């Protein structure tokens, strides 16, 4: 398959775009695979890609019930960061960040990873102290972080509300300069193309409907396109993990919740960074197309519906205007919802399951997009080696019964609060 | 006004809904024009002969007014200026007002000469998704992105604040009717007559919908007469609310319709006290969606030229606005609307030079009428290309069959400045789809119509593909009546449905894309706003982006401000053809709210600025403000941080001086602080002690009346939730206090457990946080002050020991006095009914003046408690256990309590977990910052193993004489006396610290018990 | 808006309530501290893709806890009652 | 001793509520009339569910007003008025003229939880032509005259503050009980929303 480059682009432009090939094949499923990955979102595709690339396991199928990247990969707010405090999260997300930094090259597909900086605003001394603790932990873990005071924040983002009218004044902020955004759909497409080029079969419109079990093993998956045998099987289905697990009689520490996202009408460059409001739930960036992309808090009740309600919308918009008053007259173009697999401590679960050849990758809460390459990388390792990598050893499923909780937000076993 | 007429060369002298007696001056791109009241900006521009109004998103191609409604892809302008500037505003929906100012967008230096128009020449390189295939090299995407971002975007916004107000309103209705076209008016009429509460919502300045744009009749009279009389009847009904200029933009759960009412957008500025816009949420029992339909463009070579316009829009401009959108017109349509358009344009005095109809054979009476008027009708033909640059100059037409056979047809050039074009109509199924409704394809109209209703909604009229006026009226009358009856209202006899005189129409010919001339590389735009061509769609398909969602995301089809109102179905049709499928098989993308873009301010309403969230005030709030308090936010509360003297400036030095002054006063004389924000819960009933036993880690069965006890609560997972004191003030009566932050959660915690888990307990809880004002008086002189306040009380250590509780009168009103201490001093807390709070506070200060009593704020309070190693939310941070805080021994093993079970898990029970300690700089002077991390070796390379962190610090501790802090350190109790490093790499600092007990002041507690 | 029929206050918009969570989890009062029932109670969830019994606290109303049966795929509210009430699935099939 | 000073019970709105006409000057007069009812007594009484009817009887005996066992109903004309706030739970309210809590403690059996909330609530009275519209701005419940009847009350959120709204008459006249710490916030929100109708503060 042809490489993408400025030369191929010119060549094709001159010949009328007749020789572009499919970005990925559309194969019929084989009777069985060494590894079947359920879920053709970013995580499933990244897992297949790294299984093939790093571990040489190429007899792999990715089963997607709809269209590639149609879940949260295609409906998130595209933020990439590794500004975590707890070690197990920090090391994992930083690995992901490092993969992001080379991902376009690795895939030969421009995922538009834009390291424009992620700034979290603080609105009290106590919040500044918490940010300091997080930033210091990041530095000690080798992750970039800068603590800005009010003046420095104002210099960087002069358009925030610094007036006396602000209900919650800005005290300062924590900046991760390497954080930023990426073009979410491109990540799915680039990974699909990359995995496909290494021999992975990507099978769309193939819904898993059941499992064939022998003892404590899954022999095959039953799908809308027939039964497909599997040596090993990995779930990367985010909000639908609980549903698939229930078909295996498994209960997980996961609830599905809806998170809404929003985009404004397109505008000339207005916001150059990713900025988050600290006295409410609101975060903001501007896409390359010009739309302001923003989001807020969960709708706070279990949901599998990919749409949310007005109470949360109002809450988000209030936060937005509180942070950036000039948003008031700009217009909301579209809003939608994604189904979040909220784990009970707010951190992901990647590892082995109680079933011998089943591996779990779930519990992403609303942090799954930034984890995409890292998640695939460690999940591929876990599947290939039948053993978690040190980077995901702390993300095991049994941490709940063992009491090794990874509660980054410190809000307890209430999924809606993470 | 003669002047207005002269300036409006395209205005028809009679007819239309405009007020010719009310001319309005306005400007576009700095040039002045005149229109009339009743115009939109679009109609006024057309009246003045302005055809070029914008540039397209990607190729910066010249674009004109394309439609007459919310579907407008091209005519987006920057409206108004300064704080009221609104980019991307559709000229087709802006009602003209005096002094209106608009500017074109996405062009430089001017609309006619746009440098970025060079993109158009390079368009073969800027095909769909080109950016995914390049810009990957040195210096990286972020570099290229800078230029791409500047080229992209549409309108320009600035960081200026909005001077206008927004409002929010709730409504409740039996029946909400969305859209006041013929179907909606008819439905509202029959529903309204039944007495049902009806909301009729319409996005225009006045009801009528398409009736305003057509020359139809009802009962033999102009259709608008019927609309006017219907409206008059509706306005008389008290049970009917009509919202004009109101767009129902979203359909939410619970049959809630979200509406944006543009209260003042048609005015130069809102009237005094009036809002700009009002966002409604209307809860309905039934929803009738009379949302009409949108005309589809035809996709042909050069279909984006200014002067190419939807046929229905051309009729609107001619009929409603009395404007000729051109002088010489060609009509190109795949259905009988083409003939209707030709007739209307001819009536308006436009020379119609041909009706191009791809169909062959007879189509019925409309065509006959057109031929009878001598207009050239070319059947079986298509427009294969347009000519002109900044405006249409003419079209080439050719025979369709010849083209489809693969041969090169002869073309004929027709000069014209208006090409009215229509590809049929698509029902507006947006609101239906917002609640996951699945539209189904109707091949008869080549469009998607609503499928099964998931909510209590029903689509009527054109919104469900019933396009004839008669059908719309019948649908409306019937639906209004049936909906009212289903809700139990009586409607009596079926109303007579008025008659119409429509002509029969023939079937349309599906034409998702008009074939191009062989060998011509012209562009056929599917999405006018985002510059997506039919070839882009085919390229995406050939690269495997075959799902409609992939198509949308890869090509940006339908991603513009119009959300693909005119483009989606054509795009999907082209995709279907490329895939060899039927449109019904490729489906549609999901329609998302809002139907048309909504100002963000409308969602915030009045909750902006300092009203973003409620402010909670303590009973002594005004006193604090009047006495130099610098207030700070504590959640929703405002609390004094420190108090400045009368003439002290609010400087950093003065702040430190004030904090030191207050801290010393407490330790040396007396201080008083406002602790009214603490949560307070009244607990009554024989099982009150049992409840306390279950929610606190320590035992409560032995607490005597008149005594208080400190307690710690855990969450069910074993993590500390909150701490506070609870007092027994009667046999079966307790008074619990919580921290300020956890007051709400603790109350909910108690209610949940009592109602769900332990309903057998005979105990009631009630929040009394607002009932009691509370103040802490601390310091060596506090007993003397209390004695002056309460001469009747025995305040000796024996008479009123530490953790004692007394009730007494302060003057004439009741007070509760608690001998508890957060500062480690001899201290009391006094609670009085809130209405007496300020009086009691003033009384304390008056009495205490001679004892050196001063008010102290949160900063001093913080230093005092750190000196004593007392914890706050900085330590109880949602991750620590009771044992981590040094309360391990408090955890009773004789009873069960919330959180005990999961506290025993290995990870929670690990003795190596970080535990509360005190931390003092080894050099005795260097300040330790909160948020520092404790490490063994400050020079170790990352990743550095962490031993814990510094949670609270005081840069000055005037009582101890050096900076102090507390924090959590691994294996803390065994490391007392050791030194570790507190590092703060964010500022490149590392401080060697000695590990101490958390309590570094008056360790024996002599003061407390003094 | 979700409209929840509070047994005391009547039908109210969900913004008056705080969502508590899965109502099928019974607190294992009396279970030994090391009993796995505690981990199950606090952490594991059925998370069904359909009707879901759940608790909402009417904090801006009567402050009572309301048990709600709600289809979490469609957000349709199928019933509501007090915590101890048995709320059966309605006879008519719920919409998918 | 300056007991006279101490006796002065201070309203949360002291110094905030400015008597006079505010906002639009409408030819038909201000659409909203707003006053504070102060000083005011508010006492919550709560029974175990199975003793609610017995408590209702005892309450009637003690106050002369029979509380309704039907949810959301108010009873009595004012001295006192009894508002249902939950299953087996009522607020007994009246203009302050005695120690109501102490009186009820003496008059009711000790199986009843009695909590004095007189100082915990600020009571605003809203009346006038546009009252229901104003309330609909900040509250999701149905304020229409056919839905919110006289002598019924609702506990709900009004401009994000927990409130008890008591409809005194269809006229309309509403008493609003808000938590004291939120009183200024609620007042400001109400006044802000009322300016377009004209607001007379007495």
Task: Provide tags for this entry.
heterotetramer, A: 418 residues, alpha/beta, FAD/NAD(P)-binding domain, D-Amino Acid Oxidase, Chain A, domain 2, 2 domains, 8-stranded mixed beta sheet, globular, B: 1010 residues, alpha+beta, Ubiquitin-like (UB roll), 7-stranded mixed beta sheet, 6-stranded mixed beta sheet, 25 helices
Strands, helices and their partners?
The complex is a heterotetramer of chains A (418), B (1010), C (96) and D (202).
Chain A: H1 6-14, E1 32-38, H2 42-55, E2 60-63, E3 79-80, H3 87-101, H4 103-107, E4 118-122, H5 125-140, E5 146-149, H6 150-156, E6 172-176, E7 180-181, H7 184-197, E8 201-203, E9 208-214, E10 217-223, E11 226-235, H8 241-246, E12 254-266, E13 274-277, E14 282-286, E15 291-302, H9 310-323, E16 331-343, E17 349-352, E18 358-362, H10 368-385, H11 399-402
Parallel strand pairs in A: 1-2, 1-11, 2-8, 4-13, 11-18
Antiparallel strand pairs in A: 3-7, 4-6, 5-6, 9-10, 10-11, 12-15, 12-16, 13-14, 14-15, 17-18
Helix pairs in contact in A: 2-7, 2-10, 3-10
Chain B: H1 2-6, E1 19-28, E2 31-37, H2 41-47, E3 54-55, E4 62-63, E5 76-79, E6 86-90, E7 100-103, H3 118-121, H4 141-151, E8 166-178, H5 182-193, E9 198-201, E10 217-218, E11 221-222, H6 223-236, E12 240-243, E13 246-252, E14 256-261, E15 277-289, E16 293-295, E17 308-310, H7 311-319, E18 328-333, H8 337-347, E19 351-357, H9 365-372, E20 377-379, E21 381-388, E22 392-399, H10 400-404, E23 411-415, E24 418-422, E25 425-427, H11 430-434, E26 440-442, E27 447-449, E28 457-459, H12 469-486, E29 525-527, E30 532-533, H13 534-542, H14 548-555, H15 568-579, H16 583-586, E31 598-599, H17 601-604, H18 621-626, E32 629-634, E33 637-643, H19 652-668, E34 670-674, E35 679-684, H20 688-695, E36 707-714, E37 720-730, E38 733-738, H21 743-757, E39 764-767, E40 772-778, H22 782-789, E41 805-810, E42 813-818, E43 827-833, H23 837-848, E44 853-855, H24 858-868, H25 906-909, E45 914-921, E46 933-935, E47 948-954, E48 964-970, E49 979-984, E50 989-996
Parallel strand pairs in B: 1-7, 8-9, 8-15, 9-12, 15-28, 17-24, 18-19, 18-24, 19-20, 34-44
Antiparallel strand pairs in B: 1-2, 3-4, 5-6, 5-7, 10-11, 13-14, 14-15, 16-25, 21-22, 22-23, 26-27, 29-30, 32-33, 34-40, 35-38, 35-39, 36-37, 37-38, 40-43, 41-42, 42-43, 45-48, 45-50, 46-47, 46-49, 47-48, 49-50
Helix pairs in contact in B: 5-6, 5-12, 7-8, 8-9, 13-14, 13-15, 19-24, 22-23
Chain C: E1 3-6, E2 10-13, E3 18-22, H1 36-43, E4 51-57, E5 65-71, E6 77-81
Antiparallel strand pairs in C: 1-2, 3-4, 4-5, 5-6
């Amino acid at each position: 398959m042809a490489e993408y480059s400025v030369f191929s682009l010119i060549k094709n432009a001159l010949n009328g775009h007749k020789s572009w090939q499919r970005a990925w094949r559309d194969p019929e499923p084989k009777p069985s695979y060494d590894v079947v990955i359920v879920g053709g979102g970013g995580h499933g595709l990244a897992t297949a890609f790294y299984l093939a690339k790093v571990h040489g396991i190429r007899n792999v199928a990715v089963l997607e019930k709809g269209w590639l990247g149609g879940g949260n990969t295609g409906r998130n707010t595209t933020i990439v960061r590794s500004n975590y405090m707890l070690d197990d999260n920090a090391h994992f997300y930083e690995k992901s960040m490092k993969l992001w930094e080379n991902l376009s090259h690795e895939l030969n597909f421009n995922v538009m990873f834009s390291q424009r900086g992620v700034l979290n605003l603080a609105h009290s001394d106590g919040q500044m102290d918490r940010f300091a603790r997080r930033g210091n932990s990041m530095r000690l873990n080798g992750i970039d972080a800068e603590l800005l005071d009010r003046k420095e924040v104002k210099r960087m983002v002069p358009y925030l509300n610094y007036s006396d009218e602000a209900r919650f004044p800005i005290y300062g902020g924590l900046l991760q300069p390497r954080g930023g955004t990426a073009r979410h759909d491109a990540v799915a497409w680039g990974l699909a193309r990359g995995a496909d080029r290494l021999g992975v079969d990507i099978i769309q419109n193939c819904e898993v409907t059941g499992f064939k079990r022998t003892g404590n093993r899954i022999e095959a998956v039953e799908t809308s396109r027939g039964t497909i045998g599997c040596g090993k099987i990995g779930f990367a289905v985010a909000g639908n993990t609980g549903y698939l697990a229930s078909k295996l009689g498994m209960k997980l520490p996961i609830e599905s919740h809806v998170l809404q996202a929003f985009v404004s009408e397109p505008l000339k460059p207005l916001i150059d960074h990713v900025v988050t409001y600290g006295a409410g739930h609101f975060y903001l960036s501007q896409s390359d197309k010009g739309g302001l992309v923003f989001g807020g808090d969960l709708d706070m009740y279990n949901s599998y519906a990919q749409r949310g309600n007005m109470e949360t919308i109002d809450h988000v918009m209030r936060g937005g205007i509180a942070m950036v008053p000039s948003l008031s007259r700009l217009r909301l173009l579209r809003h939608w919802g994604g189904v979040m697999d909220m784990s009970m401590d707010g951190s992901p679960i990647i590892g082995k399951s109680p079933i011998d050849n089943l591996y779990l990758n779930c519990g992403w809460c609303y942090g799954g997009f930034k984890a995409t390459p890292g998640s695939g990388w460690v999940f591929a390792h876990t599947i290939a080696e039948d053993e978690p990598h040190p980077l995901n050893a702390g993300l095991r499923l049994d941490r709940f019964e063992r009491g090794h909780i990874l509660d980054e937000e410190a809000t307890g076993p209430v999924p809606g609060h993470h | 006004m003669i002047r207005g007429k002269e300036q409006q060369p395209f205005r028809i002298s009679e007819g239309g809904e405009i007020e010719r007696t009310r001319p309005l001056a306005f400007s576009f791109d700095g040039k002045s024009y005149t229109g009339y009241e009743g115009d939109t900006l679009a109609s006024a521009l057309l009246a003045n002969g302005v055809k070029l109004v914008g540039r397209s998103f990607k190729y910066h191609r010249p674009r004109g007014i394309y439609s007459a409604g919310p579907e407008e892809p091209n005519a987006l302008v920057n409206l108004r200026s300064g704080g009221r500037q609104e980019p991307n505003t559709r000229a087709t929906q802006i009602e003209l007002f005096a002094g209106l100012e608009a500017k074109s967008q996405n062009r430089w230096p001017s609309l006619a000469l746009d440098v970025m128009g060079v993109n158009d020449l390079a368009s073969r390189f800027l095909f769909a998704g080109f950016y995914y295939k390049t810009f990957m090299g040195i210096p990286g995407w972020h570099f290229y992105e800078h230029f791409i971002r500047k080229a992209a975007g549409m309108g320009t916004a600035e960081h200026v604040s909005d001077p206008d107000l927004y409002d929010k309103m709730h409504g409740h209705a039996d029946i909400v009717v969305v859209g006041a076209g013929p179907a909606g008016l008819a439905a509202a009429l029959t529903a309204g007559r039944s007495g049902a509460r009806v909301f009729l919502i319409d996005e225009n300045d006045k009801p009528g919908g398409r009736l305003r744009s057509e020359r139809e009749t009802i009962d033999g009279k102009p259709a608008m007469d019927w609309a006017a009389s219907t409206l008059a009847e509706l306005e008389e009904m008290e049970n009917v609310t009509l919202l004009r200029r109101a767009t129902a933009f979203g359909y939410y759960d619970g049959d809630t319709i979200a509406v944006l009412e543009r209260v003042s957008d048609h005015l130069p500025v809102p009237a005094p006290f009036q809002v700009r816009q009002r966002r409604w949420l209307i809860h309905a029992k039934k929803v009738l969606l009379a949302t009409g339909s949108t005309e589809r463009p035809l996709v042909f070579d050069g279909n984006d030229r200014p002067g190419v316009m939807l046929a229905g829009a051309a009729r609107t401009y001619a009929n409603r606005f009395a404007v000729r959108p051109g002088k010489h017109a060609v009509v190109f349509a795949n259905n009988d609307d083409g003939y209707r358009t030709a007739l209307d344009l001819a009536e308006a005095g436009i020379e119609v030079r041909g009706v191009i109809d791809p169909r062959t054979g007879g189509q019925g009476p409309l065509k006959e009428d057109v031929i009878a008027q001598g207009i050239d009708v070319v059947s079986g033909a298509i427009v294969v290309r347009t000519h002109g640059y900044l405006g249409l100059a003419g079209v080439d037409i050719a025979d369709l069959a010849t083209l489809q056979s693969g041969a090169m047809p002869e073309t004929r050039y027709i000069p014209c400045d208006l090409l009215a074009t229509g590809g049929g109509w698509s029902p507006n199924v947006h609101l239906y789809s917002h609640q996951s409704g699945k539209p189904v394809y109707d091949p008869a109209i080549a469009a998607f119509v609503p499928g099964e209703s998931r909510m209590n909604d029903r689509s009527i009229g054109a919104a469900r593909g019933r396009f004839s006026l008669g059908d719309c009226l019948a649908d409306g009358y019937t639906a209004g009546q049936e909906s009212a009856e289903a809700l139990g209202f009586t409607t009596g006899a079926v109303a007579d449905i008025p008659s119409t005189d429509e002509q029969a129409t023939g079937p349309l010919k599906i034409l998702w894309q008009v074939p191009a001339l062989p060998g011509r590389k012209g562009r056929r735009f599917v999405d006018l706003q985002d510059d997506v061509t039919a070839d882009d769609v085919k390229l995406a398909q050939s690269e495997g982006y075959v799902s409609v969602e992939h198509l949308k995301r890869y090509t940006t089809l339908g991603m513009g401000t119009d959300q693909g109102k005119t483009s989606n179905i054509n795009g999907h049709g082209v995709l279907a053809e490329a895939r060899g499928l039927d449109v019904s098989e490729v489906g549609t993308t999901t329609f998302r709210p809002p139907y048309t873009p909504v100002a963000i301010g409308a969602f915030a309403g009045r909750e902006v600025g300092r009203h973003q969230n409620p402010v909670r005030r303590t009973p002594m709030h005004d006193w604090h403000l009047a006495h130099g308090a610098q207030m700070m936010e504590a959640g929703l509360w405002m609390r004094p941080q420190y108090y400045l003297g009368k003439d002290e400036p609010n400087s950093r030095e003065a702040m430190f001086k004030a904090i030191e002054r207050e801290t010393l006063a407490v330790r040396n004389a007396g201080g008083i602080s406002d602790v009214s924000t603490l949560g307070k819960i009244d607990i009554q009933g024989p099982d009150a002690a049992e409840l306390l036993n279950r929610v606190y880690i320590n035992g409560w069965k032995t607490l005597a009346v008149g005594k208080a006890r400190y307690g710690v609560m855990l969450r069910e997972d074993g993590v500390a939730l909150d701490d506070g004191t609870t007092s027994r003030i009667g046999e079966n009566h307790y008074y619990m206090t919580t921290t300020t932050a956890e007051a709400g959660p603790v109350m909910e915690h108690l209610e949940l457990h009592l109602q769900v888990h332990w309903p057998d307990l005979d105990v009631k809880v009630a929040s009394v946080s607002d009932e009691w004002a509370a103040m802490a008086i601390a310091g060596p002189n506090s007993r003397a002050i209390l004695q002056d306040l309460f001469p009747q009380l025995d305040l000796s250590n024996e008479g009123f020991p530490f953790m004692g509780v007394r009730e007494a009168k302060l003057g004439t009103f009741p007070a509760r006095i608690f001998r508890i201490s957060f500062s480690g001093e001899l201290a009391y807390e006094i609670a009085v009914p809130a209405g007496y709070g300020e009086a009691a506070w003033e009384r304390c200060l008056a009495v205490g003046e001679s004892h050196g009593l001063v008010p102290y704020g949160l900063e001093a309070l913080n230093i005092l408690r750190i000196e004593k190693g007392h914890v706050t939310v900085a330590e109880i941070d949602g991750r620590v256990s009771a044992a981590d805080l040094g309360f391990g021994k408090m955890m009773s093993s004789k009873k069960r309590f919330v959180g005990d079970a999961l506290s025993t898990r290995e990870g929670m029970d690990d003795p190596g977990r970080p535990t509360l300690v005190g931390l003092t700089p080894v050099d005795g002077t260097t300040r330790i910052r909160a948020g520092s991390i404790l490490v063994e070796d400050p020079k170790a390379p990352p990743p550095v193993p962490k031993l814990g962190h510094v949670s609270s610090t005081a840069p000055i501790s005037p009582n101890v004489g050096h900076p102090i802090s507390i924090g959590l350190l691994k294996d803390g109790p065994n490391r007392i006396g050791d030194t570790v490093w507190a590092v703060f790499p964010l500022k490149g600092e590392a401080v060697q610290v000695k590990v101490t007990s958390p309590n570094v002041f008056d360790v024996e507690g002599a003061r407390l018990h003094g | 808006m979700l409209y929840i029929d509070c047994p005391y206050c009547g039908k109210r918009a969900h913004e008056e309530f705080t969502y508590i969570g899965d109502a099928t989890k019974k607190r294992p009062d009396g279970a030994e501290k090391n009993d796995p029932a505690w981990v199950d109670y606090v952490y594991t969830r059925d998370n069904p893709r359909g009707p879901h019994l759940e608790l909402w606290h009417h904090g801006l109303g009567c402050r009572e806890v309301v048990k709600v049966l709600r289809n979490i795929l469609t957000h349709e509210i199928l019933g509501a009652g007090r915590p101890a009430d048995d709320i059966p699935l309605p006879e008519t099939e719920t919409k998918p | 001793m300056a007991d006279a000073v101490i006796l002065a019970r201070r309203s949360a709105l002291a110094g905030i509520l400015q008597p006079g006409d505010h906002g639009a000057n409408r030819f038909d007069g201000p659409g909203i009339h707003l006053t504070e009812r102060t000083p005011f007594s508010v006492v919550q009484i709560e029974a175990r569910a199975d003793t609610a009817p017995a408590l209702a009887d005892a309450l009637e005996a003690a106050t002369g007003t029979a509380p309704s066992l039907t949810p959301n109903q108010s009873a009595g004309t004012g001295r006192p008025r009894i508002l249902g706030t939950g299953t087996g739970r009522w607020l007994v309210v009246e203009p302050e003229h005695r120690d109501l809590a102490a009186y009820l403690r003496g008059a009711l059996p000790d199986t009843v939880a009695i909590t004095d909330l007189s100082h915990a609530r600020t009571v605003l009275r809203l009346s006038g032509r546009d009252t229901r519209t104003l309330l609909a701005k900040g509250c999701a419940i149905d304020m229409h005259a056919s839905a919110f009847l006289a002598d019924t009350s609702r506990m709900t959120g009004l401009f994000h503050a927990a409130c008890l709204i008591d409809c005194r008459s269809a006229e309309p006249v509403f008493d609003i009980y808000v938590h004291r710490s939120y009183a200024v916030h609620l007042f400001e929100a109400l006044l802000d929303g009322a300016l377009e109708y004209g607001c007379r503060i007495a």
